[in-house]
Write a structure and sequence with these properties.
The protein is mainly β. Helices cover about 10% and strands about 40% of the residues. Strand 4 and strand 5 form a beta hairpin. The protein is elongated.
Length: about 230
């Protein structure tokens, strides 16, 4: 995916860069650009269209012009999120460091409900539309697709809601009471037996089953529409 990063530097200064340089004062633009470039390479939305805004440095701040390359860093224990504080430091003869607030917006198309969706309803492409949103602000994330068979809603979903993973579940691949093939691996030997499902379950989900021969209840993972791997 081709992506682009639009960096907005929100710095205002009444003194032009050339005047600052001649006065031996570090350029606010250079400080801000250092913070922007640091975040641009490390934020978690690398596949999205992003906009990075660096907060304004106090125009009264006068930092000595750095004789070395400026270095950006995160404060101890910090991680890059939608709103982050980034430090910029100079390790030259006149060392200093300053902290700037940074905001990231990341835009991509997400699924949004076209109309109210009832709990337990099968959700298909006919029920959703794709809309561009700032996903950095979606604290619960977003669902990236419905799969070929669609999904079932876990609860009612209002019109216009961004579809998240916790709103949906895969439809049951195995139904309660269905006869199954149970497979188990013991050392180098594969063992197969007949079983019965004790509950509905989707592919990849854990399921309780009964060994028809012994009546023993077991637990396994659904691997197909009629097969469960015992664990």
């Amino acid at each position: 995916m081709i992506w682009r990063v639009a960096i907005t530097i929100a710095l205002l200064s009444s003194v032009c860069p050339s005047t600052l340089a001649s006065a031996g004062v570090e350029s606010a633009q250079r400080i801000s650009a250092t913070a922007s470039q640091f975040i641009a390479k490390r934020h978690p939305w690398q596949n999205e269209n992003t906009r990075i805004t660096v907060g304004e440095l106090d125009p009264r701040t006068r930092l000595a012009k750095c004789s070395q390359r400026l270095q950006a860093f995160l404060p101890p224990g910090a991680s890059i999120r939608r709103r982050t504080t980034v430090g910029v430091r100079c390790e030259g003869v006149k060392a200093w460091k300053v902290y700037l607030p940074v905001t990231i917006a990341a835009f991509t198309k997400v699924m949004v409900s076209k109309h109210p969706i009832a709990a337990g309803q099968r959700v298909t492409e006919a029920d959703i539309t794709w809309t561009e949103r700032d996903v950095s602000s979606l604290s619960y994330g977003y669902q990236k697709g419905l799969g070929g068979q669609g999904m079932l809603s876990r609860r009612s979903i209002p019109q216009g809601a961004v579809i998240t993973a916790n709103m949906l579940e895969a439809p049951a691949m195995i139904k309660r009471g269905q006869e199954l093939k149970l497979i188990s691996r013991s050392t180098a030997i594969n063992v197969s037996m007949k079983g019965r499902a004790l509950q509905d379950a989707a592919k990849g989900a854990r399921i309780r089953v009964e060994n028809i021969s012994s009546g023993k209840q077991l637990e396994g993972i659904v691997i197909s529409g009629n097969t469960v791997r015992i664990e």
